[in-house]
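Hi R.,

Here's the chain you asked about this morning:
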Amino acid sequence: MPAPLSFPFDNTYARDLPGFAVPWQPAAAPAPRLLHFNPSLARELGLPLADATPDDLAALFSGNTLPEGASPIAQAYAGHQFGQFSPQLGDGRALLLGEVIDGQGRRRDIAFKGSGPTPFSRRGDGKAAVGPMLREVLIGEAMHALGIPTTRALAVVATGEQVRRERPLPGAILTRVADSHLRVGTFEFFAAHAGPDQVRRLADYAIARHYPELAGADNPYLELLRAVAARQSSLVAQWMAVGFIHGVMNTDNMSIAGETIDYGPCAFMEAYDPATVFSAIDRQGRYAYHHQPDIAAWNLARFAETLLPLIDDNTERAVARATASIQVFSERYRQHWLKEMGAKLGLPPLTEADAALAEDWLELLQAQSVDFTLAWRYLGEAAAGEEGRLSSLFADGAALDAWLQRWRQHCAAADRAGDEAGASGTTRATRTAAMAQTNPWLMPRNHQVEAALDAAEQGDLTPFHRLLGALAEPCREQPRYADLAEPAPREFMRTFQTFCGT
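And here is the predicted structure, written out as tokens:
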């Protein structure tokens, strides 16, 4: 670049929390090359990149030319990994460059991932490979298009060097945008190493940044726990509604801001099975699809433990109050799940009395090994009386017909209730249209993701860009992308596993 760009950074974490991170610089990339850049996200962040060339962007997002105002730091955090506490993890291959205020007034982090070793690397190389970084682009943008809170990828740059994994792989750096990188593990680190005063400073920072409405509460730290639990209950319910499996729900991968973060061994459900696990390292199924709500509650309990001295001077009272807040998480999650299921069924939020309708539908999908995404999508067509594509997914048509009869009765009852309340009645067309906007037609099919990443590692980005473009409109059925909507072959899914990429 002719001169370093100046980003509108306002780096509160580095400035207001000294001792919570280590100043550090990215490693030099020998031959950076731009693989992906999101110009609309750059505009949203207010970054002056409209006239930047691909070479300019490659130099910038490889870390070879940092923008003015950057204050790169490696953040400290700990974490429970598969239930075992690791007292020091931290940004072993990531750097927070700084924070900007976007066009909506939101404070956003801009961070590198894969930019080289830091003091927290624990003998790791600090690098990342092209495939896992482009996976983060695909899955993160798919989640964003679905309306699910998520970190996003601003850019990916190939570094021009190889990283050593099971085999040599082309290296890459991801530039990630997040509401923040505060994690449950951040609180665990300072609770373990520095004590309540430092945890209080961190909690005050989290409240000011993410939950300013809590600043005047009688017990702001108990309210912080409740607020984080509320966001997580909504987030996990949204994951479950689209069949998303995070894969590694360690406490260092749970965001205080309530975003989906760290797309490592993640994937989406194909044939419905609640015990589905894709992660190669999750040999016991701890983070299986159906365990995700319980794991979220478990992680929140670890968060609560860090806040106990702040919640009440009396330990017994603090534990009782925190425990009650965690128990509320399960109730809130259930309400969010019932709301999500109601929308997917073309109904108002379900009550507990109606929950069996959704639960029996899922049992039917499991019993007949039916594709999760297409079953929901084609159910919307059945609302308009077009059952052909839905029926084709089921081997036992009688079981489907019996459930459909119950569903239609619920739809009719909901319509009558709406009429009695003075609302305009739901028609077949309006129900079908609403379900089509709730139940996506296209998801990141695992075989398509793997094919796109394999091609990218060989230097062909065409499949990646095609899949990324299709995922921008997941609810719009487009014939030109019909091949991308097809379920993965069963022989592929029998052996399919995902990996962390470290």
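One quick note: The chain is about 45% helix and 10% strand.

Cheers,
M.
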